[in-house]
Amino acid sequence: MKKTRIKEEEEDDDEDDKPIKQEAQEKEESNGKNDEDEDDDDDDDDDDEEERKRTTTFNFDGVTYSFKERPSVLEEKEGSAKYIMSPKVYSHAESADVANAVGKHVLKLQNSALESGLTFKIALSGGSLGKVLKKALIDNQDIAPKVKWDKWEVFFSDERIVPLDHPDSNFGLFNEMVLKSLPEGTTKPKVNTINESLLTGQDGQTSGADQAKDLEIAKDYQSKLPKDHKLDLILLGCGPDGHTCSLFPGHQLLNERNELISYISDSPKPPPRRITFTFPVLENAVSIAFVAEGEGKAPILKEIFNDPSSKLRSKLVTDIKTGVEVNWFVNDAAINGVDVIASKY
Ligand SMILES: O=C(O)[C@H](O)[C@@H](O)[C@H](O)[C@H](O)COP(=O)(O)O
């Protein structure tokens, strides 16, 4: 799998676009086009320009592909600006194939992280991801032997403030689904959990909770993040309200820029007390991958990919433009009726 480089311009009018647009204009001028010609060809030019903006071309293994898609990540290299096609959507009919694709992607990121570093730093979420990871990394015999668990450092993109063996704990889920299923003798990964000794209240409920301790839990978890707060891969789910991590619709946490880990005491989805990655952590990752399956996700995916004005948290993460590669791993049912170009991994 190779990262594709986009040669064409993006549709919107971000500040970032200016140098490229100017560059394109300068090129056109230096090609000897005069003002008079431009007036005459105005309408045609507008149509061509419109078409050009909507068309993306990229070269893959010596072949040039051209299609309509909105690239969203700008990369500047050796003086020239390029777009990296992101997000990419990978879709398969069967759940087993989605898990296989996720597994291969995890391996790819693991191997690339270990080429330059000592550990593979991965963040996980809750929901159905535990099941997918078990299928991908434990049950899949092509993938399982290639997972270097002893080199993994695991984080949670969000965590519920509950005991680690509580059914609501994201660590608990990973532990039950994956860690406990590792073959005997496997060196376990380093897993960063919330500090259980700071827990107050019952089962993540607000009554009896000491908010000062919860804030300490968030601070403590923040201190466990890598110094450069760079994660190699963040695996995310997408809730029916478009939430991801514990970033919920309408919640002010979206604007948090000072903290890497935030505390939320009023999660609309139980349990109410949680900690979560903030945007600065997501923006700084090497790669983000969403996993979403089932026809129930289709309306949300339709909004994410077909409504440019949407403010869904998952859409805002999908559209991050800091250079992080964003991929979606879905099954065909999840993108039924969604206008998006998907490929197999
Ligand atoms: O903490 C939560 O509220 C959930 O864990 C949540 O963030 C989950 O990732 C999504 O709801 C997707 O869940 P599914 O993958 O099960 O659809």
UniProtKB/TrEMBL annotation:
GO biological process: carbohydrate metabolic process; pentose-phosphate shunt
GO terms assigned for molecular function: 6-phosphogluconolactonase activity
Substrates-to-products reaction catalysed: 6-phospho-D-glucono-1,5-lactone + H2O = 6-phospho-D-gluconate + H(+)
InterPro entries associated with the record: 6-phosphogluconolactonase_DevB, 6PGL, Glc/Gal-6P_isomerase, NagB/RpiA_transferase-like
Subcellular location(s) per record: Cytoplasm
Any Pfam family: Glucosamine_iso
Domain of life, source organism: Eukaryota
Acidic residues: bias regions: 35-50
Region Disordered, residue ranges: 1-55
EC number: 3.1.1.31
Protein name: 6-phosphogluconolactonase
Protein species of origin: Cerrena zonata
